[in-house]
From TrEMBL:
Protein's gene: msrB
Superkingdom per UniProt: Bacteria
Family designation: Belongs to the MsrB Met sulfoxide reductase family.
Keywords for the protein's UniProt record, in alphabetical order: Metal-binding, Oxidoreductase, Zinc
Gene3D superfamilies noted in UniProt: Peptide methionine sulfoxide reductase (2.170.150.20)
Protein name: peptide-methionine (R)-S-oxide reductase
Catalytic reaction(s) noted: L-methionyl-[protein] + [thioredoxin]-disulfide + H2O = L-methionyl-(R)-S-oxide-[protein] + [thioredoxin]-dithiol
GO MF assignments: metal ion binding; peptide-methionine (R)-S-oxide reductase activity
Amino acid sequence: MAGHDTAETRSEAEWRRELTPEQYRVLREHGTERPGTSPLNHEKRAGTFVCAGCGQPLFESGTKYESGSGWPSFYAPLEGAVETQTDRSFFMTRTEVHCARCKGHLGHVFDDGPAPTGLRYCMNGAAMGFEPQE
């Protein structure tokens, strides 16, 4: 995608033009896709999961695992790829995960994941793309 460095300065109209309605709802409006609906749940090839908004590499395929949650899950992001903040919506306190570059909402992180981190980065497939390893 063109303009990686200007991702944070895009207007909402530009975001709407560049993203599908589902990507916009998840990335820009903190939406959540229905569980089990993302083709990325079944992605098993070697490669990198990237932000659908700006192309930032987020997760290596080797950190993906089947959590049974219905969303693509990973035990660790790439260094510096994501940021977190407290999300107190829906009468719960959760830790929201967003892209460090464009601040697009990706999902949430929970402390019920596998070793070595014990974390489950529960991501919306609509918020990501997949780039297979050459």
